[in-house]
Amino acid sequence: MAPPIGTTYHEGELAVQAKMGVAHTAAFRSGHQKTFLSKPVQEFFAERPFVMIAAHDAEGSMWCSMVATSDGTPCLSDISADSLVLKASTLRPNDALSGALVVGMEVGLIGIDFVTRSRVRVNCTVASALANGDVELAVEICASHCPQYITQRFWRADAAGTSGEAKGDEASARLTGPRGAPARFRPNARTVSSLEDVRGLIDGSDTFFIGSRYGRKPGDGDARHGADASNRCGSPGFVRVTGRDTLAFDNYNGNQMYSTLGNIVKDPRVGLTFLDWSTGDAVQVSGTAVIDFAPAGQGKEDGGERVLQVVTVRVTSVVVRVPEAVPGTWTKAQSRPLVLSRKVQEAEGTASFYLEAPPNTPPLAPFKSGQHMPVLVGGLNRSYSLSGPPGAKYYRISVKNIGKVSSALHELEEGEEVESLPPAGSFGPASLKPGSDVDAVVLVAAGVGITPMVSMAHAATMPTAVVHAVRNGKQWPFRGELQEISARAGVPVRLRAFLSGPTEQDLAAAEATAGEAEWKIAAKRVGVEDLLEIAKDLGASRPLFCFCGPLPFSAPLQAALEDAGIPAANIKSESFG
Ligand SMILES: Cc1cc2nc3c(=O)[nH]c(=O)nc-3n(C[C@H](O)[C@H](O)[C@H](O)COP(=O)(O)OP(=O)(O)OC[C@H]3O[C@@H](n4cnc5c(N)ncnc54)[C@H](O)[C@@H]3O)c2cc1C
Questions:
Q1: Which residue, judged by its Cα, is nearest atom 5 of ligand 1?
Q2: Per the count of CB atoms within 10 A, which of 26, 62, 283, 469 is most buried?
Q3: Domain 432-574 listed as CATH 3.40.50.720
Q4: CB 49 within 8 A of CB 157
Q5: How far apart are CA 201 and CA 233, in angstroms?
Q6: Keywords for this entry (predicted)?
Q7: Looking at the domain covering 334-420, what would its CATH class be?
């Protein structure tokens, strides 16, 4: 199937996507890139007390900086579809980008909510510099990204006047020299260090930020140019100092757009920032990067993540230490063991796992429908949507057996434990802002993508349709449970199934007349006309469409809905399965 949308990738990104054999998927994902900030994205940025930006300095070196308010108030204002004002005046005087943002400069910006693990990236240009040192940014491209590797952290603003004191329960300051000697530290002055001085911080990092650019060169046929800010997360060791002036990081399978690596192919200049979450200090590094596309199966022997590329950065500029760049108090989410109290086979290859708090331990934290839960198995971190009803005494995840972690889960016996992190995410009607005008919900899933939708159906508070695309009746999880939900729901919950490879038995079921609370089955692939019809049947004038499934399933339908006049803000998606 051809991707539905003209791509907005530059030739560096396209080259890496082609090299990695993911050009087709990436082309589908290009529809996630918008040339404006949708309403939900505007709301997301309106609540951010800090964002990371990437830009170059007067010498052309790339840097990444945190722009933050210390009191938890938003660091962006005057947000519209086309522009936003960045409180660049809050950059510390010794920050590498302090005073560097001039009119016409390309700026990459990324907002991350470390609690919900949501992140949105925007490529901008400085439209105007305000008298107070803030800058107005014009939006060029915006994309929301998958939460997969974001290390969850909780944050709270410091009380006035306490900024800079020892913070939170993150590990104690790691800005130490090679033998643990306290790092030299001169507040409010640019501090120049060697990489060796900050090895402890870098080698122990589970998160860092990277700025890169896709600069236009003379004779370059590519019209696009700009800067990108992004993040990388992993277990400590995934980024490490490898020499006197080199560091390297492992790159895992991500959203397959390859923005950062594509930029590096075009222009090797990068800026990396490491945060000491305990002291609030930031370390900024600037250099040039090279990509090793064949890291010889790293991570396989030790059971770790599959490393697709290793990026080595040769540090060409000074290392800048910015004291108190990171405001507030940070607490890294702690994992806890949960007991597998029940395991249920839902369909061919898919099982549900009911997880409960062990006896004499705190009860489970509440969750909202549409949220996911990271689980840790053999050093690997995988997220699974919660498929059970919010408020139950268990968390239920439902997993298709396809790889390392999913197969390990399928092998578990009842009574065994699973290490898990707190639920996170914001997907579906439970995440609508108060006062939203959405009047019905159409949940569209393919295969195991039904999992968050089951939880949403349990929690339905407005007319809802569940649309499930499956191959046949054997690979159709939650068929019975959703009928039970529909039969007793306080609002209409309609069920529609689309079977792409029906058996004789399925065809007979499709012929039968379905009751109000039963599945209406069609032996065909779901089309956009079906979705619009289903929304109309619900009596919806402002429906919210939520998609969950593989990109080649969701992306064409999402694009067709937009073409049919459904606002992008009313179309949400998560992709797996
Ligand atoms: C927010 C969110 C919610 C999710 N919810 C669910 C859910 O409810 N249910 C669910 O089942 N999944 C869900 N997922 C997907 C889940 O997180 C995992 O990605 C999935 O279970 C696969 O992990 P794994 O370790 O089993 O597979 P992996 O071992 O990571 O393998 C993944 C894929 O890569 C292939 N692969 C692995 N190694 C190689 C190699 N060396 N060369 C080539 N290909 C290889 C595998 O065949 C497989 O197809 C969700 C993901 C996210 C981000």
A1: 384
A2: 62
A3: no
A4: yes
A5: 14
A6: Dioxygenase, Oxidoreductase
A7: mainly beta
